[in-house]
Amino acid sequence: MMLRWLATVSLLVCCASAHAAPPRQVFIAGDSTASHYGPERAPREGWGQQLQSFLDEDAYVVRNHAQSGRSSRSFVAEGWFDGMAKEMRAGDVLLIQFGHNDEKIEDPTRYNEPQRAFPAWLMRYVELARSKGATPVLVTPVARRKFDRGQLLDTHGLYAQAVRDLAQREQVGLVDLTTLSMDWLRAAGDDASKAYFMHVPAQDQQDDTHFQQRGAVMVACLVVAGWKQVDPSLAAHVKRDTDCGAPGTALSDRKAQAHPSLIVHEREIAIEQPGPHGGAGSTTAYPFFKQAPALGFEFRKRVLHRGAGIGLHQHHKDEIYYVLSGRGIYELDGIAREVRAGDAMLTRPGSTHAIRQEGEDDLVLLIMYGRKQE
Fold it and tell me: Of 364, 362, 356, 354, nearest to 306 (Cα)?
């Protein structure tokens, strides 16, 4: 009887597995900005290498067919297109990003003029996906990091527009990566954006087209964010947040700020004080952003030197202590507990608390609570 039951269960499991839908394949047809690089090319990575990190593997599996140096023409002529076509099946997705090498007029094996030849070659990818029952998604070429006197230049111009026009004409989903990446680069600025690209002094590289890992991750994030706009159902299978980049209004938003963002150095604001609330010993307070207008909370660092403490007091607001380093005794509502680095304590209104330093090392706290509004 038991053997028969086990056989039945095994059959049901096998049948269920057999009928489970396989993950959808996400094909990437593109150039060196998306392609895969081995460890010997580190720290260089294409955005296609990082795409899977945003997607649930049970729902989507990335098949990165992007090849360095290829245009929409040479990708087909060299057989990469046919190799990809053999693997594609109904329900899959094809992300199509070309343009960087289609612009190279000096190379007739790659060059495509932007208004007719380039969209004609891209249509072969759209038609392939449709013939296979897959979903084509056109992606405008990712921006180059090219600033002139602080202004980011659009180096893709007519090629990006050709992709937009084709997407509209053929009713194909569009990720406008040119616009998304240009908005990001403008917000990052000329100097800070170098860290995302292959500016690697140790390798004597100053490459404004290809990415280090942090750049590949950022661009993959932009691609997924744009793809979610095309297909809202994708969001259920995205396992990382895609709140990345910046809107096109980022620079004007910055200029319109009522109060600018700030950086404070603690060495410039240190205040020596006795233990607060009747506490023993001496402390050092660092009242970060004390004078910042319209800030709804207090944020400070408090160092309790040897033998120091914050005396017992009742709370009328929420307050958080976070132990950065050292060891202490925390009293909350009549109960004393030892606390160490990494512990966080939330005191709610109506509770009483106190804390004192223990041991040889200073007890260092980060403290946050709501600021009384004027």
Answer: 362
- Helix, strand, coil % over all residues of the chain, rounded to 5: 35, 30, 35
Residues 6+ apart with CB under 8 A from 31: 66, 67, 68, 69, 70, 71, 97, 98, 99, 100, 101
Q: Tens-digit pLDDT profile for the chain (374 aa)? A: 444 544 444 544 454 444 678 999 999 999 999 999 999 999 999 999 999 999 999 999 999 999 999 999 999 999 999 999 999 999 999 999 999 999 999 999 999 999 999 999 999 999 999 999 999 999 999 999 999 999 999 999 999 999 999 999 999 999 999 999 999 999 999 999 999 999 999 999 999 999 999 999 999 999 999 999 999 999 999 999 999 999 999 999 999 999 999 999 999 999 999 999 999 999 999 999 999 999 999 999 999 999 999 999 999 999 999 999 999 999 999 999 999 999 999 999 999 999 999 999 999 999 999 987 55
* Token code pair at residue 92: 């899959």
Question: What distance in Å separates the CA atoms of residue 354 and residue 184, rounded to the nearest whole number?
Answer: 46
CA 243 – CA 319 distance, rounded (Å): 29
How far, in Å, CA of 332 to CA of 79, rounded?
Answer: 70
Strand 344-347 to strand 297-304: parallel, antiparallel, or no bridges (unpaired)?
A: unpaired
Residue 171: how many other CB atoms lie within 10 Å: 6
Indicate the pTM of the whole model: 0.90
User: What residues contact residue 356 under an 8 Å CB cut-off, 6+ apart?
Assistant: 279, 280, 304, 308, 309, 310, 328, 329, 363
